[in-house]
Amino acid sequence: MIATRFDGLSGHTALAAATPAAATPAGATAAGAEPGVAAPSSEPARWTLADAQALYEAPFADLLFRAHGVHRLHFDPNAVQRSRLLSIKTGGCPEDCGYCSQSARHDGGVAATKLMEIDAVVAEARKARDAGATRYCMGAAWRGPKERDMGRLTAMVGAVKSLGLETCMTLGMLTPNDAQRLAQAGLDYYNHNIDTSERYYGEVATTRTWADRLDTLKHVRESGMKVCCGGIVGMGEEAIDRVAFLVALANLPEPPESVPINRLIPIPGTPLAEAPPLDPIEFVRTIALARILMPTSMVRLSAGRTAMSDELQALCFFAGANSIFVGDTLLTADNPSEDHDGALFRRLGLKPLDPPLP
Ligand code: SAM
Ligand code: DTB
Ligand code: SF4
């Protein structure tokens, strides 16, 4: 167990207020009685913005101690899942997300391709599995899938799953029927990010609303698939937007099982190309808060690692991140090399984390 000398965290008023059981080791409060949450017996726990903000703004050591304690309660802190991404349909997207290289509305966006054939996807997935990935995420630059694509997509899910990989897709907005068909095909997770706070969303994308994103998440949840939902930080938002975005996720009727946290990769030609870089300490605070608010979810250190030092990534793992994307490319942007990540795992004594059994 973690040393108890600084367990109370009571020196910081705001953090103490969010930690009613001050004598309890940080993070050791039973699930279902999460600190700072008024939890009426039959209702799901609800985080208030004020309690979450107090955690986010706490002294760094207190925040990290608390987040790491929560992390250790639910996960092996020395195990990190390796996931792999493939862009199965790139570019030419009609949406205007200000961060994205794949929008047809931005200058210099990547060239548009057609939906990949199943055999080509399976060949890539097999290579990823043989290189150690246990989760395979397939992304398409669409507003949403078209009826004519659904047959190929569902067959693709079955073929990739039969390799023994956990499967995830991100295809844009889904109707209830789309979600049910993907679920029936065996898709484990659907990724659909709320990306930022409701307040800031309109600064980032105008061709759809934050509420549209929640509709798709509802259809995914009702289909029985697991929800993968996170966002991007470093888009010029305020700290309170980062807090509000995580509170929104934690307060969903059921929090997402998977929470990707992306740090903006500035893409030339996009509206966010010149966004001021986010302070790395703020980034770690975001990861730590995600871990505390969603104790049993996978917190995925996603886009932006190429611009992060090993030390920053080590802090993110300590704060509760337990998945990364491996391989030289994400969807369209660069990612650290497998050699670099292998060395990072060795330096930090990390081992691969297998996905939990269904
Ligand atoms: N078209 C689908 C959609 O919007 O739901 C899926 C693809 S989209 C590329 C998936 C996520 O990747 C976005 O929601 C965003 O969080 C992240 N992302 C995209 N471009 C990024 C960038 N330049 N830097 C960091 N994250 C990015
Ligand atoms: C997510 O939140 N991050 C991944 C995954 N979901 C699909 C995508 C990151 C994309 C980074 C930019 C690019 O490669 O174009
Ligand atoms: Fe299209 Fe998705 Fe990129 Fe937005 S994030 S422009 S929806 S591919």
How would you summarize this macromolecular structure in one to three sentences?
With 358 residues, this protein is of the alpha/beta class. The protein has helices at 13-17, 49-57, 60-74, 118-130, 147-161, 176-185, 198-204, 210-223, 239-250, 280-293, 310-319, 338-348; strands at 37-38, 46-47, 79-89, 135-140, 166-170, 189-191, 226-228, 231-233, 258-263, 298-301, 323-325, 351-352.
- Oligomeric composition of the shown chains: single chain
Helix content estimate: 25-40%
Largest sheet: 10 strands, parallel
- The assigned structural class equals alpha/beta
Shape: globular
Number of strands: 12
The ligands bound in this entry are: S-adenosylmethionine, 6-(5-methyl-2-OXO-imidazolidin-4-yl)-hexanoic acid, iron/sulfur cluster
Q: Which blocks of ≥5 consecutive residues have pLDDT under 50? A: 1-41
Walk me through the structure.
The chain is an alpha/beta fold and 358 residues long. The chain is 38% helix and 14% strand. Helix 10 (280-293) links the parallel strand 9 (258-263) and strand 10 (298-301). Helix 2 (49-57) crosses helix 10 and helix 5 runs parallel beside helix 6 (176-185). The chain is globular. The two termini are 29 Å apart. The model is unreliable at 1-41 (pLDDT under 50). S-adenosylmethionine binds at residues 99-100, 139, 141-142, 170, 172, 192-193, 195, 231-232, 262, 264-265, 267, 303-304, 331. Iron/sulfur cluster binds next to loops.
